[in-house]
Amino acid sequence: MAHLLGAEALHLDFGTGPVLGSISIGLDDGDRIGMVGANGAGKSTLLKVLAGRIEPDDGRVTVARGTRIAVLDQSDHVDESLTVAQAIVGDRDEHEWAADPRVRDIMSGLVPDIAADTVVGDLSGGQQRRVALAHVLVGDHDAIFLDEPTNHLDVEGVTWLADHLKRRWPANRGALLVVTHDRWFLDEVSTRTWEVHDGEVDMYEGGYAAYVLQRVERDRIAAVTEQRRQNLMRKELAWLRRGAPARTSKPKFRIDAANALIADVPPIRDTVKLHRMAAARLGKDVVELVRVGVSYGDKQVLRGLDFNLGPGDRIGLLGENGAGKSTLLRLITGEQEPTAGRVKTGLTVRVAQLSQQLAELEDLADERVSAVAKRFSSIQLSDGQEMTPGQLLERMGFTSAQLKTPVGRLSGGQRRRLQLLVVLLSEPNVLVLDEPTNDLDTDMLAALEDLLDSWPGTLVVVSHDRYLMERITDQQYAVMDGGLRHLPGGVDEYVELSRERRAGTSGIGTFGQGEDAAAAPSSPATPASSAAAPALSGAERRAVEKELKAVERRMAKIQELTEGTHNEMAMHDQSDFAGLTKRMKALQELADENAELEERWLELSEQLG
């Protein structure tokens, strides 16, 4: 295995304390390294030092002769005077790059919605970032350094990038160093993890999941060591005060395997208790959309949409840009009225939305964090625990020094955390989160998820962060073709649906085909629908629509019966095996019927076209 890059005794100080303190690390052929750490810990700085973009105060970085390194950091920009094709492939002729399967794959994966002759300056910031990433990936490099490459990518884009990086090089060839807070992505692409903290780098084998287990064990050992040290100091102080040696027994410590550390951890969420408490706060009715349609001029975004949001539901929404996710959120929050149908909102519903623009903090810029917290009273969580604003601030990582800081001087990640706490302390019972992971590191994401697990309300989430989506929501839906499609298979099912839809389009998506191609409707999700559905007469269409509604009502009823049976099992005597077996059989029968209804629903939907 060839050695590509080495760093020896790296030291860097920006005048506020060492960012890097005598770090020695190396990069070999075959390495796939994910870098994690708190915001401001020095991850991006270390990446830039290794890439040669920043000179360290001391130490050196050596690169093996002939090693080709490509870098994408957060400050990289594309020449806005170039066309998209020029920015990605340079001066290569179109027939040359269009015949290269690798280039076509990168373009269809990252810029399927952008025409090749579009001027970069006319693109949004997110689109320019994708063009810059495509430019890096098109080249032939021995090592690639990427800083937050999943920013501005949707779920399909993140999945494509992970797959591309896994198959980019043969086994034990090439090297990848990536800084990201996307934990699913880390688990997919990395085989080793570097944690940057306090000017040091701790190394772990495996991706994010393996890193978490190893870190828990390492922290436990450190806590035991610190406890032992403190006990010794207390005994030493007692001896000094009494003037005689203390007689003590030496405690015994046992180091458990990583899996034993989580053996007694309770379930992530007590779903039954959460639903019960949410129902007590909300009542039976939360938000119901009845045959809702929304149009912007001649463009119809949503049509004939039926959706019932119940107490304690945790819903994740997925969909392409422009599919209607934001429109659906505005309908739920009451910010927008439908152009057809109606939205019924329960009398006790209090909706709050975590906006991407930090609007909740605009009027608090000059106030200290502690003063903001004093505006609110304690809240009660679904586990019965009551938490004060101060305890919530501590839980979300605010130090005593940061409590004295004016809100306007907080970092982006700190403002994001404070924004969430302000929203939660206002005591809504329906919470809408639109891309809540922006500016948060992996530790703060874990703290956010832990807090939301015990938050007693209804939750609706839109996020490209696959890990967070699967972690905090119980049901996922795709916004597509103007309606909602339930995803029993979760995000994996949505990714597969997206692949099928893209496979139904010609060539490499809309790249190089202009705006007309980008505006063309996608093919339906199911393979059987690739052929045009036969035209239905008026009577036939009404009959199909009537049956479709009946199927949807029965599916909703089955979901209600299934939840009720689960609740009965939770409350049932666990030693009554006969009773439990009867209910398990009932659950299986409901699941079988639901599967048949889903197939019939698809058939009827195809007939309607």
How does this model look, in words?
It contains 21 helices and 20 strands. The strands form five sheets. A six-stranded mixed β-sheet has the order 5-6-7-3-8-9, with helices on both faces. A six-stranded mixed β-sheet has the order 14-17-18-12-19-20, with helices on both faces. Strand 6 (143-147), helix 6 and strand 7 (175-179) form a beta-alpha-beta unit. Helix 4 packs antiparallel against helix 5 and helix 20 runs antiparallel to helix 21. The radius of gyration is 27 Å and the shape is globular. The termini are far apart. Residues 344-371, 541-607 form a coiled coil. Residues 517-535 have a biased composition (Low complexity). InterPro entries: AAA+_ATPase, ABC_tran_Xtn, ABC_transporter-like_ATP-bd, ABC_transporter-like_CS, ABCF_ATPase, P-loop_NTPase. GO terms for molecular function: ATP binding.
Task: Give a quick set of tags describing it.
5 domains; Rossmann fold; 20% strand; 6-stranded mixed beta sheet; coiled coil; 609 residues; 20 strands
